[in-house]
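Let's see one such:

===
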Amino acid sequence: MERRTFISVTAAALVPGPTPHQHVDPALITYFQEQLEGHYRADMLLGPHDLIGTVSAQYQLIDKLVRSARGETRRGLLRVGAAYAALVGWLYQDAGDLGAATFWRGVTQEIAVRSRDPHLIGYSLVNQAQVRTDLGDGHGVIDLCEAALGDAAGLFPKVRVMALQQQAHGASLTGDRATVDQLIDGAAGLLHRIDDDLPWGNACRRTPGYLEVQRATCYGRLGLGGEAEALWSQVLKAVPSTARRDRGVYLARHATAAAAARQPDQAVEIARSAAEIAVETRSVRMARELATLERTMRPWQDSPVGRDLAEILAPVTEGV
């Protein structure tokens, strides 16, 4: 990473020195929590690039306040600060910068440990496992998720669901279909027990068919094109048009599953919508999903359907 890029990534997290003492009102915790929910919604609509600066600047303010706060106010700001660091890490991951994402996942874990909150520490480990998933390191994913679940009985059901489904991704990377199903079925048994009011980690509440999305993704990774295609057809019926970024990722994966199931015409038709969303959101993660589709469609690259796909994907996959 070039020095200038590194400085821009770390600037909000590595501000040196103490800050002048100031009174920190506990109401600021609620303020930042409410802002966080708005950032989650904006991420679904905008993609990563327009939010990284805003969210990292708010993290920097939280870090400044933590240095002056005392007692439970300080502890509460640490908890919300970890959630902001996790979101910055996710935004960099979605933007395709895994180095920056890894840095911010490390910041998340540091703040989580400082908060002494076991649920947040588990969440931070799952965040690191997400980066390992994008790196294709199945055993690394499993290690981190097993660490998160080390005291599973004491964790909120939401954290256990997150760790189990992420561990399923690790199992899919190691080719273990039976464990994928076992882990996702185990997570499904916990969904009805999620009742916390924590502002972070709520994708399992916001995302229709959340666990079937994970299963379909794992099946696609395992090369189970027909089963993955059937699941994506079902999942996408429930995804609202407002969840623009998520919908684009799912469409790209659906198109790849259709290609793997030897349905190239359907794959190209699905890819049209995914490519439009990828151009709008500038999500590198989505572009990489479409690059995977392009590789899966190579048997048809010299046919009319293959040339149609190349034209559709040209504005998206260039340089990915």
